[in-house]
Amino acid sequence: MLTEGRVAIVIPNWNGAELLRSHLPALRGELGDDSERVQTIVVDDGSTDDSRAVLAAEFPWVRVVVHDTNRGFGSACQSGVEAADAELVFLLNSDVHVLEGFLEPLVAAFDRDSALFSAAAVALGEDARSYHDTLRRPRWSRGNVAFQKLSCQAVEAAFASDTAIPTLFATGGHALVHRQRFLELGGFDSLYRPFYWEDVDLGYRAWKRGWPTVVVPESRVIHQDVGTIRTHFEKKHLDDVSRRNRTLFTWRNITSTGLLWRRHLLPLLGKIAIRWLAGDLRFYRTLGAAMRRLPQVMKTRGAEKSAQVLTDEEVWARVSGD
Fold first, then answer.
1. What pTM value is reported for the model?
2. pLDDT digits (tens, 9 = 90+) for 80-103
3. For the domain 7-231, what is the CATH code?
4. Contact 132, 123 (CB under 8 A)
C-alpha cells in the first residue's frame, strides 16, 4: 500500500476522449485501495473534442488541468508534474493500458536506488506478448544517434532475472519519474517542439548528472499506439521533425569533443557535400530547420556541460549493453 503523497499519475490529453474512456477504468481498477492516495491528473492540452465533458461526467475522481490552447506534449507533462503533490510522478500516455501490478515494482526501484531519475514499465504490443519498444541500446549510425532494435528473444533474455536494467531514457508514456529532479532539469525541453526526442534528451541529461533510468521487467503496460500525433500529422512531416530533433539532440548533448567530431560532425560534413547528387532536398531542409534552432541549443549547451557528473563515454558504456 502506497503512502499518501508518494505517487501521482499525470496523463497528457489532446482530443483523446475515446482513449480516456478506454483506459481510465483500468487505471482506476488497478489502483484499487490506493486510488484515494494516488492523485490522478489529466492535463487537457487544448482539446476540441468532448474530452473535458467526458472527464467531468464519467471520471469525477480525476483532477483536470486545462490548457486553453494546444501547447504540445512537453508542456502538458510539465503542467501536470508541477500540479502534482507527490515525490514520484507516473507519466502515462492516454493510449497506454496499465496491467496488473504495474506501479509497485516501479516504486520499489526508487527504494533500491535513491539516485534514480526514472523507472520505465515494459511496453507490450496490443497482443500483450510482443515487445512494443523496450530496451534502448544507443548506437552511432552514419553520423546520427540511433537505437538498436532487439529481438523478442534478446529482450526476454535480458529480463530473465527480473532485475532493473539500465537504459538511456524512458518513454514519456509509461515511466515513473522523480518529480524534483524532473523539475530541476526543466522537464521536456521546448527545443524539440512540437514532439519527438524530448524524452531521449531528458533521460540523457539526467544520466550525465548521475541520475540513472532503468527498465523494470515486473512492470507491464500495453501500448495501443494510436495516439493523437499520428492521426493529426502526415508521416512525411513526422519523419522530418524526428530527423531535425535527432540532430538537435546531438548538438545539445554530446559535449565530448572527440566523440562529437568523429561520430557526428565529420559524417555530417560528408553528407552536406554529397546529398545534392542524389537530389535529397529533404536532408537540406531538415538540417536547415535544425540550424534555425541552433541559437537555442547554444544557450543551454554550456550549462549542461558544467552540470555533468558523467562524460558522454561513461553514459554510453552504462547503457549500450556491450
1. 0.92
2. 999 999 999 999 999 999 999 999
3. 3.90.550.10
4. yes
